[in-house]
From TrEMBL:
It is a multi-pass membrane protein. It is found in: Cell membrane. Keywords: Cell membrane, Membrane, Transmembrane, Transmembrane helix. SUPFAM superfamilies: Multidrug efflux transporter AcrB transmembrane domain (SSF82866). One of its GO terms (cellular component) is plasma membrane. This is RND transporter. The chain crosses the membrane at residues 274-292, 299-322, 328-349, 370-391, 403-427, 454-475, 709-729, 736-758, 764-786, 798-818, 824-846. It comes from the Bacteria.
Length: 858
């Protein structure tokens, strides 16, 4: 029945080719125009997993209460000195805060007026006391610099200190550190390598810590989700402003972008660039394989036109059903080429074989349709079922891919039974008909039958080993591992992750109030898997009374000095030269045995006799940051008792919701780029707060959701295809013959993955259920021939068609492995490996498994 219907359809399409081809051409033209004007791309990857899952709802609830933490574009500012880092960050922050067209919100989590005023209270008491003593000792010099914050004032202050040492009214320890810093800066600048002095370090009298050299700006950019780079305008604005402010590496400052928005935008750019390359390579390889397989230019043209029409119509289907496409579903284009061309090769090779047997064109097409009806239909339905198995999963990205690809298989089947015959009828492929099979493969068939026990035993052993290896199969749920480590956003986030406090993977808990939040924080802090816990109370310093007493004493001593508003006018070049020479002379006289003093004196002589054009640069590196540091010190000395009610509203809002609920954040202990660290953090945190959420929970649960989704998809596909085969083949033996090679290939693929350390992830896990459908399609052709009594399957035209169909599919998938995007490349690599394994089982294992054909063939 099926054969007669398909043969009639093929015959009708060929006889009415002048009707079929124009109608489909008009349909394709309309579909193409519709796709160009309506099909969109949504690059919001957070929407690719079902929002109905409990952990997604918990995350959504937290985001609703604290919306400022979602969709962040993080700016990382690094300076060569603490002063540079602070000044650069504040300058850029002020520019961004004044650009509401580009940013919904702009925050400084580690700086700004609040931390400038209360920062001393967050220091340990002994560190604060040491700093206070150092500043008190330097009070005379601070007063001198406050009155004249210039090169003249700096060198006059050093000269005064040298006089004090010479008269033994001052000790060397008082100026040792300033001498070291100023000499190093002056000498390096004279040598053409400017090195700014950090007055913050000198005033604080403590070693520079990595966090002193780095500050963050957290922004929520205005995004355009219809564009590939959703925050392109905001990112460009940041970079333009940074350049305008002179925040460049040659001036000791680097500005980098990261955060979820930058990561997504750069990932999609990389993936799309890779996809375009993969598509080009795929089409080129497919054309070359068609040339070898079909041996006819007209057959190739007809097959390729059919493929392109199918691709356009499938895009049109996507525009009506799942529009906009997501970053996963858009990958169906490359896969469609490899899968769709299979039908064209199967039909074309059979057409060539029938031409070899019969010269009448109408008879050839009708007989081709009759012969290919059952295998092509079975293959199309099997592949469609394989893709349709994605539909009920919670992984929306792949579910939509499954819907598009399922429709694509149906579309390409219809086109290969209508448009392709019509094109062949119009083009009338010429040339002498040739045998399409491989007669030389007869000896291989005989060998496989003769040694079938050993072959079956070998493949059986591989299957058992693969089954055992499955227990060690790993799923890598970390999305960062799928990204290009060389792009700025990824390189920056990896750099940040060296400090656990900057890790993007944290656990967050929503508490009913601040007291409950503190109780939870206390319990989380006791966990070894947690390195730090933050709440609103984290911004209320401890030991305030003792620290305020130290600050009060310091304010009493140097407050009046810092409050002075009278400063000398800027010095002239001659005054600068005179102060340099005077300072050099004083240092030589007062400190003849101190090497650093003598080096500084020599450097001052060089500068005093040099070109005055150098003085602005010396001002920049030696004293430019001084006045700002003194003003910050004056502000810090006005600190007063601090409690939650005095926290700035924006800082309070980060941790306490309007309804009083409070947020608790736990940071991981260890390398948060290690999945084990994240798993241990989530597991441990849930012992304290079972409803914990946060990025660590999200990627952990997303990994579970995706792996479970594909597990379900594979089971559904296996059951569905088994039922389908049972319905159409009606013999359990034949159903098992079709399924056995796929199962063997599946376990062999798992064995290779475990042996080579190739882990499944969000991208490449698509291989398993997909290859189930593809494998069934290929094995069906052989089993159908075997049922018909074909004794040497590898010599048939079917073997040629399957081989080149598999190679075309491998070319399509394998081209993905050349992508610059690690996720896409990994997916292509696994698909290629799995397909090659599948091909070996079909050409070696299946003939041995089938054995001689039935004594009563169909």
């Amino acid at each position: 029945m099926l054969e007669r219907v398909v043969a009639a359809l093929v015959d009708w399409s060929a006889r009415r080719a002048l009707l079929v081809v124009p109608l489909l051409a008009l349909l394709t033209l309309w579909a193409g125009v519709h796709v160009v004007h309506t099909l969109k791309m949504n690059s919001d990857t957070s929407a690719m997993i079902s929002s109905k899952l409990p952990w997604r709802q918990q995350s959504a609830a937290l985001d609703k209460l604290f919306p400022q933490d979602s969709g962040q574009l993080v700016i990382v500012v690094d300076g060569s000195t603490p002063d540079q880092a602070e000044d650069a960050t504040q300058a850029l922050y002020e520019k961004l805060a004044a650009a509401p067209d580009h940013f919904i919100s702009v925050r400084r989590p580690d700086g700004g007026p609040f931390f400038q005023r209360y920062g001393l209270l967050f220091l340990p008491l002994d560190t604060l006391q040491k700093m206070s003593d150092s500043i008190a000792t330097a009070q005379p010099f601070i007063g001198s610099l406050r009155a004249d914050p210039s090169l003249r004032g700096l060198f006059d202050m050093l000269a005064l200190a040298a006089d004090g040492i010479a008269s033994q009214s001052a000790g060397l320890a008082m100026i040792q550190r300033p001498l070291d810093a100023i000499e190093a800066s002056l000498t390096s600048t004279l040598d053409g390598k400017p090195k700014p002095v950090s007055w913050q370090t000198l005033l604080m009298d403590r070693p520079v810590e990595p966090r002193d050299l780095r500050h963050l700006i957290l922004t929520q950019p205005v995004r355009d989700f219809s564009a590939l780079s959703t925050a392109a305008a905001a990112s460009k604005f940041i970079r333009d402003e940074a350049r305008a402010l002179g925040l460049t590496p040659d001036k000791g400052v680097t500005v980098r972008l990261t955060g979820s928005v930058a990561l997504q935008d750069e990932e999609l750019q990389t993936a799309t660039q890779g996809l375009g390359t993969a598509l080009t390579i795929s089409i080129t390889l497919v054309l070359l394989l068609l040339l070898v397989a079909l041996r006819s230019a007209k057959l190739i043209v007809a097959s390729f036109i059919t493929l392109l029409v199918g691709l356009v119509l499938t895009f049109a289907f996507a525009s009506f059903t799942v529009n906009p496409l997501n970053p996963i579903s858009v990958a169906f284009a490359v896969m469609f080429i490899g899968l769709s061309i299979d039908f064209g090769i199967q039909f074309g090779v059979r057409f060539g074989q029938e031409r070899f047997l019969d010269a009448d064109p109408s008879t050839v097409l009708r007989r081709t349709g009759y012969a290919m009806a059952r295998p092509l239909t079975l293959a199309a339905v099997a592949i469609a079922v394989g893709f349709a198995s994605f539909l009920p999963t919670d992984y929306r990205g792949v579910s939509e891919l499954g819907l598009i690809a399922t429709a694509g298989m149906i579309i390409t089947l219809i086109l290969n039974l209508t448009l392709l015959p019509a094109l062949l009828a119009l083009l009338k492929p010429s040339g002498a008909p040739r045998e399409m099979g491989y007669r030389w493969a007869s000896s291989i068939d005989d060998f496989l039958l003769k040694q079938r026990r050993w072959i079956l035993a070998a493949f059986g052993l591989v299957t058992v080993l693969g089954l055992v290896a499955a227990f060690w199969l790993q799923f890598d749920y970390n999305p960062l591992h799928l990204r290009d480590r060389k792009v700025e956003s990824m390189a920056t986030i990896l750099d940040l992750m060296r400090d656990p406090l900057y890790s993007p993977f944290s656990v967050q808990v929503l508490a009913p109030n601040i007291d409950a939040a503190q109780d939870i924080a206390k319990k989380l802090s006791a966990l070894p898997e947690v390195s730090a816990v933050l709440t609103a109370e984290s911004f209320i310093p401890q030991d305030q009374d003792a620290k305020l007493a130290v600050i009060g004493d310091l304010q009493f001593l140097i407050g009046p000095t810092l409050d002075t508003t009278e400063t000398k006018p800027p010095p002239t070049d001659d005054e600068i030269r005179a102060s340099m020479k005077n300072c050099a002379e004083k240092l030589r006289h007062a400190l003849p045995d101190l090497p650093v003093a003598q080096r500084l004196a020599a450097a001052l002589d060089r500068a005093a006799t040099g070109d005055a054009k150098l003085f602005p640069q010396l001002t920049e590196v030696l004293v430019a940051g001084l006045d700002a540091r003194l003003k910050m010190l004056a502000l810090a000395l006005t600190a007063e008792p601090l409690d939650l009610s005095k926290l700035p509203e924006d800082l309070r809002r980060e941790w306490i919701a309007p309804d009083g609920r409070a947020r608790v954040q736990a940071m991981p202990s260890g390398d948060s780029n290690d999945n084990n660290t994240v798993t241990e953090l989530v597991t441990a945190a849930r012992t304290v707060a079972p409803d914990a959420t946060g990025t660590a929970v999200e990627i952990y649960e997303a990994g579970r959701a995706v792996s479970n989704a594909f597990r379900v998809a594979t089971i559904i596909a296996l059951i569905s295809i088994t039922l389908l085969l049972g319905l159409l083949l009606r013999r359990l033996r034949d159903v098992l013959l079709v399924l056995a090679p796929i199962l063997v290939a599946g376990f062999a693929t798992i064995l290779v993955c475990v042996a080579t350390g190739l882990e499944f992830n969000f991208a490449n896990i698509i291989a398993l259920p997909l290859l189930l459908g593809i494998g069934v399609a290929f094995t069906i052709y052989f089993v159908v021939n075997w049922r018909k009594g074909v004794t040497h399957p590898l010599t048939s035209s079917t073997a040629r068609a399957v081989l080149f169909s598999a190679l075309a599919t491998a070319a399509s998938f394998g081209s993905l492995a050349l992508s610059t995007h690690p996720g896409t490349a990994g997916m292509g690599l696994l698909l290629l490996v799995a397909l090659l394994i599948m091909l070996s089982t079909i050409f070696l294992f299946l003939p041995a498994l089938m054995g001689p054909p039935p004594s009563r063939p169909e």
